[in-house]
Amino acid sequence: MEEVKAIKTASIHQVPKDGSQLPLMEAFYTIQGEGGNTGTAAYFIRLGGCDVGCHWCDVKESWDAEAHPLTPIEDIVETAAAYLGKAVVITGGEPLLYNLGPLTEQLQARGIKTYIETSGAYPVSGSWDWICLSPKKFKQPDPSVYPFAHELKVVIFNKSDFKWAEEHAAKVGEHCRLYLQPEWGKANEMTPLIVEYVKNNPKWRVSLQTHKYMDIP
Ligand SMILES: C[S@@+](CC[C@H](N)C(=O)[O-])C[C@H]1O[C@@H](n2cnc3c(N)ncnc32)[C@H](O)[C@@H]1O
Ligand SMILES: Nc1nc2[nH]cc(C(=O)O)c2c(=O)[nH]1
Ligand code: SF4
Ligand SMILES: [Mg+2]
């Protein structure tokens, strides 16, 4: 068990610190399904590697960075620029494991907006038009990340998560939008609770994983 952990850490550290190459799991053009930009066209770049360990994570195949090829960022940018959509969502895995400065600067230089989905477990790198912070109990955000969040999106897995969500809402900036999103496996049970909670606490908004209802990536 310990040995496996050691191998995983080493693999993350083999990614060049200058951000010139990143472990790319997949990239796809779709509709942003969640949060404040729901319904808008976006090119998703999913980077491999995550050490947060959410037991309900819907993309566990991303966790092992070594399973995903180190890819030059020029290649990633070139492919992204070929799509009509002018917004890119960098997700993972946990994208803030890596230096995202060069990737985001090259995207913005091509007139592409840069959005990120992050747990905030590591400090922010890169230049961002929209930061979605989705904090996790399993590895809490680095305190430096809260002021940068445009959107706080808390996954609700059980009733106690509402109180936990409020603790994080107290840490973000005044203009940060607040979202509650049902954990997909418990959506039938949690969505009605979220609806009631938002009616009683209208600073919050509902976020659903609409791509899953539409059966698109
Ligand atoms: C797969 S994560 C990758 C980015 C980053 N590691 C994070 O957690 O924010 C992308 C988004 O999906 C959410 N998510 C993951 N699994 C989920 C699930 N089972 N139900 C609802 N949302 C989920 C995360 O909270 C996050 O907002
Ligand atoms: N359509 C779509 N919207 C998303 N929003 C956040 C996603 C993610 O996995 O980060 C995601 C995703 O995987 N697909
Ligand atoms: S932080 Fe994100 S990618 Fe990592 S386990 Fe949690 S939901 Fe999955
Ligand atoms: Mg997803």
From TrEMBL:
Pfam families in the cross-refs: Radical_SAM
Function according to Swiss-Prot or TrEMBL: Catalyzes the complex heterocyclic radical-mediated conversion of 6-carboxy-5,6,7,8-tetrahydropterin (CPH4) to 7-carboxy-7-deazaguanine (CDG), a step common to the biosynthetic pathways of all 7-deazapurine-containing compounds.
Gene designation per UniProt: queE
Pathway annotation: Purine metabolism; 7-cyano-7-deazaguanine biosynthesis
Assembly behavior: Homodimer.
Catalytic activity from the UniProt record: 6-carboxy-5,6,7,8-tetrahydropterin + H(+) = 7-carboxy-7-carbaguanine + NH4(+)
Species this chain originates from: Pontibacter mangrovi
Listed EC numbers: 4.3.99.3
Protein name as annotated: 7-carboxy-7-deazaguanine synthase
Family membership noted in the UniProt record: Belongs to the radical SAM superfamily. 7-carboxy-7-deazaguanine synthase family.
Binding locations of substrate: 31-33, 46, 91, 217
